[in-house]
Write a structure and sequence with these properties.
Length: 190
């Protein structure tokens, strides 16, 4: 069986980058070929968690490839069947709302559209302080849109951040296997 190729995009929930990098290492160890992609903000923003150059360096180290950071670089992913599935981890509330509204204006989002139009699964790993407020409508719409799957998620700090939702990043490999088989890993709300 040929190696599974997974396009793996990061959007701006910078505080969860360490979790997603850990999952990328696990997927590589399991034999997946990863194509790293960064949203504009993830590619350019230095934060207290990571410098942008450090994120690019870590992605290159894990995957053996330079991250894709432009619209022309990601557009061929679906039409040319350059991957078997598309992952956005972390996926911000703003990114989910944009996709739900049909807006695919960053490399991370256009890559997803490129794969959806060719019936490839798109796995979202939510990380948003607005999951139970402004991002809720977009999340709900995507949950009912063919081709989208979710890494199971829940409230990460219901007392101090009652609207915040974060995926259980450790479930990403299982959720990816399920999405590749056309199924949503359950339970969705953990």
């Amino acid at each position: 069986m040929p190696e599974m190729r997974i396009a793996y995009a990061l959007t701006g929930s910078f505080c969860t980058f360490s979790h997603t990098l850990e999952q990328m290492k696990k997927l590589r160890a399991a034999g997946y070929d990863l194509i790293p992609i960064l949203s504009y903000h993830a590619a350019q923003t230095d934060t207290r968690f990571f410098k942008a150059a450090e994120v690019k360096e870590k992605l290159t180290e894990i995957t053996g490839k330079q991250p894709l950071t432009t619209l022309p670089e990601v557009e061929p992913l679906g039409p040319k069947r350059l991957c078997d599935a598309y992952v956005i981890a972390p996926c911000t509330g703003a990114s989910m709302n944009k996709m739900a509204a049909g807006i695919f204006d960053t490399p991370a989002l256009l890559g997803a559209k490129s794969c959806l139009r060719n019936n490839l699964p798109v796995l979202l790993c939510p990380a948003t302080n607005d999951g139970l407020s402004t991002a809720a409508a977009g999340m709900g719409k995507l949950m009912n849109t063919r081709g989208f799957y979710f890494v199971p998620f829940g409230q990460d700090d219901p007392v101090h951040k009652p609207r915040s939702l974060v995926a259980h990043f450790d479930l990403l490999p299982d959720a990816l296997s399920a999405a590749l088989a056309g199924a949503q890993l359950q339970p969705l709300l953990v």
